[in-house]
Structures are given as C-alpha cells and as structure tokens.
Amino acid sequence: MTFNEFGPPEDLRRWTGFLLSWVAAHARESYEAVVAEVGLKPQHLGVLVQIRDGPMIQSRLSDRLRVFKPVMVGLVNDLEAAGFAERRPHPTDRRAVEVHILPAGLEAVRRVDALAENASREFFSPLDESEHQTLHALLTKLADTMADRP
Prior knowledge:
Arc Repressor Mutant, subunit A, MarR/SlyA-like, HTH_MarR-typ, MarR family transcriptional regulator
C-alpha cells in the first residue's frame, strides 16, 4: 500500500462517493478562495449571477438557489451593504421585493469569471481536455438527475 500524505487514504479510494467528496472539498476551497478575492462568498455570487440579466423576486431567488428564506435575507443584506445589489418594491405586487444588481455587482461577477477561469484551468490540469469534458458531462448528468429529486 502506498501512502501520500496529501492525497486521500489508499484504503478509502475504492469508494467513488468518498473520492468525489474528497475532490469536491478541495474544489470548493479553491473556488471559495477565488470568490473571496472579489469580497464575496459563493452564495453571494450565486445571487448576483441569477440577477445579472434582470431583477428577481427575493423569494424566487431563495427557491432557485435552494437557500432558506431567512438566509437569503442575510445574503441580500450583505450585497446591499457592499453596494453590489439593492432591493426595490415589485412594480405590481406590493408584497414582493425585487433584487436588482448594481454596476459594482456586475463588475464583481466579471472579475470572478476571469479569476475562476484561471483557477479552474489549474485545478483540472491533471486532466486532458477530453477527460475534463467527460467529467463535466458526467457531473452535469448527475446534477440534472438530482434536480428531479426533492
């Protein structure tokens, strides 16, 4: 048995779920570091990406991103405090609040796009282009299947 202090333990590598979880944890750390360079957390970025092409009702954002509604309130509060987004009353539904992206929020998304491209290239560098595309296709297939479940 070989031992690599930086890799997953050899006796756990036989489980695909363990490997996926181990790699995903490292990918998440890498992604969080990139997003943090712009002063955001991944959930903040998720909100900004959802509203970059137009405003969205705050409760719809919660549903869309699968974020508990009180947590979404905090996320939007953070984005407003940073000058990335703002709440406005819905034009026809007095009970609803829309979240609008501001120019600084658009710029933050653009910056993350550029930084994430480089980080992704580095993270997936052990794979050739075909392997990377295959991995992406398989993960997309799994994600689409998960989307059909509650």
